[in-house]
């Protein structure tokens, strides 16, 4: 009976669970509403958003929108060239350790003329001179430098295959010929004027005017003359045997880059000079001294002392040799008689070559013979009484720029005649 009573009192439970009183706490529901949604990645990984990220700025929301156009990223600023960039370009440099003798061994021999002529290598010092050489097509072999920044100023493509050795500045200063060393030295192959690339402006302003250097022994004078030749627009410079080497460091320093602006042909014999002269070239000798020059100029010039007698002994020696040759039947010592004319008179009607002699030995007999065979003359630069002669570099500059002035006037006259026609 008791069992029947219990069965009769049983009632079915509801399908939905009955909420307990603790589930109706409003604070928990408020917290549930404030909870940030979670982000589900395609892989199934769930990441809760951090507090404070519920709101996105407008710019961020626009970027997150699938319809928003991507913003252009600013291009990164170009970075300065670093050794890592050099490594990508295949460039490496070696750092000289204490006791490294490579710099001293090279400097000991490269400054001697026999080594330059035998090995065909020269020394260039300074960033500007090295840059001019590279621009002209000179081939570098070794660079010694104290700071990597000095190499960064040079074109990278010109440095491939070159030995780059970083040394202390004190070592460069010890071997430098400059008062203020620039921290970089370069060993180059001796340039060939045929293979070099001279500046386009220099070639465009080149004139039918050549310079022949005879017995120039002073490095400073030769460097200055080369600089004047480049400035005047000479088409070529010929150096005879007996001149100082054009690639000597002192000549390079005085030339200020003129070696890479005008073709220079070095160490020539007089027999080969005509091969380098254009057709119909007339050779003029810059020589105020000499027995025959004194005899041919006007008496007015003699009265004003425009002729020096410093080299009369040399020409007297030529006369004595001539008399001896006449007695023996030989005639190699004859002295050509060249007409003397003032330097400011017209002498550029044909391609002209000017011979400049050294201050100690003057011009050679071969130069006078060449001038006579081409119909040339002596060019006289008058000086006041008491002045022995002009410096070779000064005389060369006066004559070259006078020749440039005459050629310019000639071109202007031709242009004017064409317009009148």
Task: Describe the secondary structure blueprint for this structure.
Elements: H1 2-9, H2 26-34, E1 39-40, E2 46-47, H3 58-64, H4 83-88, E3 94-95, H5 102-110, H6 113-119, E4 121-125, H7 127-135, E5 140-145, H8 148-152, E6 163-166, H9 169-175, E7 184-189, H10 200-204, E8 207-214, H11 219-232, E9 234-240, H12 249-255, E10 264-268, E11 282-286, H13 291-296, H14 299-303, H15 312-328, E12 340-342, E13 352-357, H16 365-373, E14 378-380, H17 392-420
Parallel strand pairs: 3-6, 5-6, 8-9, 8-13, 9-10, 11-13, 11-14, 12-14
Antiparallel strand pairs: 1-2, 4-7, 5-7
Structure description:
The structure is a single chain. The protein is built from 17 helices and 14 strands. Helix 11 packs parallel to helix 17. The longest helix is centred in the last third of the chain and has 29 residues, at 392-420. The protein is α/β, with parallel strands linked by helices and 421 residues long. Strand 9, helix 12 and strand 10 (264-268) form a beta-alpha-beta unit. It has 2 domains: 85-189, 60s Ribosomal Protein L30, Chain: A (2-Layer Sandwich); 200-414, Alpha/beta knot.
Question: Nutshell version of this structure?
Answer:
By secondary structure, the chain is of the alpha/beta class.
What would the CATH topology of the largest domain be? Alpha/beta knot
What is the radius of gyration computed over CA atoms, rounded to a whole number of angstroms?
43 Å
Total count of domains: 2
Secondary-structure-based class equals: alpha/beta
Query: N- to C-terminal separation?
Result: 152 Å
Uncertain runs are 1-9, 15-23, 40-55, 59-66, 77-84, 290-323, 328-332
Give the overall average pLDDT.
77
The strand order across the widest sheet is 10-9-8-13-11-14-12
The main sheet comes to:
7 strands, parallel
Number of strands: 14
- The general outline is elongated
CATH class identity of the largest domain? Alpha Beta
Tally of DSSP helical segments: 17
The residue fraction in helices comes out at 25-40%
- The CATH homologous superfamily name of the largest domain equals SPOUT methyltransferase, trefoil knot domain
Oligomerization category of the chains in this entry = single chain
The fraction of residues assigned to DSSP E strands is 15-25%
